[in-house]
Specification:
elongated, 328 residues, ATP hydrolysis activity, Rossmann fold, 2 domains, transport, DrrA1/2-like_C, cell membrane, Alpha-Beta Plaits
């Protein structure tokens, strides 16, 4: 399978901060790779190198068959880039923004106008296309920005936290747009600090922290690293706690853990639904009432916490100041 993005040993330093520490990346044609990490992990630094906006201090990178150092212009012709903040001219209409991008790509006046109207329709912006973009909502501006990245129909898309700051409805709309692009054959590198986003969109996930890759795999592969399923219980009466622990202990693979309160209990299991059925039967036989009980799979949040010891949206390490607004 053709690698549309391939990077080896990327290193980037800003004074005393090492934003990237030997990062390797590969994205096969037609696939989505999510680069997952907290603020300060180095995600945007990696994006800027792949987009030829900055040069690595060490390492190599090839995008769409073109070297980012030796053929930067060729790389730029082959990618569509959408950054963390919508890069639109507020004084131009949506149509004028897209037409301008087309002209900058050398499409010519007629082709630029046609492509602008086509993309406004595709991104559900036709009704607002002749309004100044400063009147657009945050979700509309992000869709317009993504449309701008597609004007030249590039084979590779690089989206740097495309849904940051959006409300849940706008985020869902952006996810649908991204799925359509991938379904049409685009290759996508997606940086995000939203675990649900990586879970829903990515074929493969690279988890980075402090500029290094600390894990790679599909969402299911990464989740399996945390130890499988668990039964979570919230009791009606904390007086039933000891009896509930005894029932859970019959199926648990380790010690039953306490939750946020005395009434909350968690037990790691391997028997799946059979273990849950056994626990329910034991609770019924013992007259143990529950407010909530369920079989839960590990989440990517659990994965990230187990790998790094902190949550994804932390600001524990920031190359922002030294990177001139790095932010990732």
């Amino acid at each position: 399978m053709t690698e549309m993005i391939s990077a080896t040993g990327l290193v980037k330093r800003y004074k005393n901060v090492e934003a990237l520490r030997g990062l390797d990346l590969s994205v096969p044609e037609g696939k989505v790779l999510a680069l997952l990490g907290p603020n300060g992990a180095g995600k945007t630094t990696a994006v800027r190198i792949l987009a030829t906006l900055i040069k690595p201090d060490e390492g190599t990178a090839v995008v769409a068959g073109r070297d980012v150092l030796n053929d930067a212009e060729g790389v730029r012709r082959s990618i569509g880039l959408s950054g963390q903040y919508a890069a639109v001219d507020e004084h131009l209409t949506g149509f004028e923004n897209l037409e301008m991008v087309g002209r900058l790509y050398g499409l010519g006046g007629v082709a630029s106008k046609a492509r602008a109207r086509e993309l406004l329709e595709r991104f559900d912006l036709s009704d607002a296309g002749d309004r100044p973009s400063k009147t657009y909502s945050g979700g509309m501006r992000r869709r317009l920005d993504l449309a701008g990245a597609l004007v030249a129909a590039p084979p590779v898309l690089i989206l740097d936290e495309p849904t940051t700051g959006l409300d849940p409805r706008s985020r869902q709309q952006m996810w649908e747009v991204i799925r359509e692009l991938v379904g049409a054959g685009s290759t996508l590198l997606l940086t995000t600090q939203y675990l649900e986003e990586a879970d829903k969109l990515a074929d493969d996930i690279v988890v980075i922290d402090h500029g290094r890759q600390i894990a790679r795999g599909t969402a299911d592969e990464l989740k399996s690293q945390t130890g499988g399923e668990r039964i979570e219980v919230v009791l009606v009466d904390d007086g039933d706690r000891d009896a509930a622990v005894a029932v859970l202990g019959q199926v648990a693979t380790g010690e039953v853990q306490s939750g946020d309160s005395e009434r909350a209990l968690t037990a790691a299991v391997t028997g799946g639904a059979d273990s849950l059925s056994q626990v329910l039967a034991g609770f019924a036989a013992g007259g143990i009432a529950v407010l909530d009980i369920g079989l839960r799979r590990p989440t990517l949040d659990d994965v990230f916490l187990s790998l790094t010891g902190h949550a994804t949206e932390s600001d524990t390490d920031s190359d922002a100041g030294s990177a001139g607004g790095e932010g990732a």
